[in-house]
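Lecture notes, unit on protein representations.

Consider one protein chain, 282 amino acids long.
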Amino acid sequence: MIDLHSHTNESDGTCSPDQLVGEAVRSGIRILGITDHDTLRGYDRALPLARQAGLELICGIELSTKLHGQSVHLLGYFLDEDHGLVEFRNWVVDMQASRRDRNIRLVARLQELGMNITLEEAEARGHGLTGRPHFAQLMVEKGYVSSLKQAFDDYLDESAKGYVYRREPQFAEGVEKIRNAGGIASLAHPVRVREDVPSLLPELCAGGMNAIEAYHSDHTPEDTEQYLNLARRYGLLVTGGSDFHGAAKPGVQLGTGYKGNLNIPSDLLHRLRAGAAEPPAR
């Protein structure tokens, strides 16, 4: 099996890189993509462990970007040391600084709303990268909300009363950075995009995006077919994965998705490798 979308506890997953590699081997995964949010630290830590276990690991990342004022996630794959990856890593570090600045302001806002939550508590959970899911966990444990969903709905989502702005790169900038680092830039879980995806694609493709995540645990068979048709129409590569987060998403399993709804074709990776060899358009 192939799974190109997974997270470790270096972002918002609950498995350490070691545990994720072990879970992949137990699940029968042959090829795994680690796509932590805005960091490559999980991939870096997992790589020697995967080699020892005979698991092929794909270098990936999931970037938080802005598109028309909305948050849209962008996957990057096959980031290459020979194609400016050092520059890409430095750019990612700058984004991480903006995330910590947001977290400081988020703590202040939650405290204004009567919650006894500190930055130190959240960062103790976030390891290399602390995000809103870690604040949501604290809110549940301290009894301020009854579920992670309520934490986001009432406090943490963009339209909620506890939300604070974080500087995020524009979608086109994320695409450019990924492509310049030798990578494939794929629209993550398009079913979550608030705008009409078919009408967005001409703009996104013109900006250099060259793939779409057709296979995902959130997608119905009809969703997947729609995105596969769009990929054919616009000449896009296709990516796919479970979006595994461990205990944070207990219904989603590596390789098989939500209740077995994920079935990634075995030849998908071959086509992606061929696409990764193509230089970005100038």
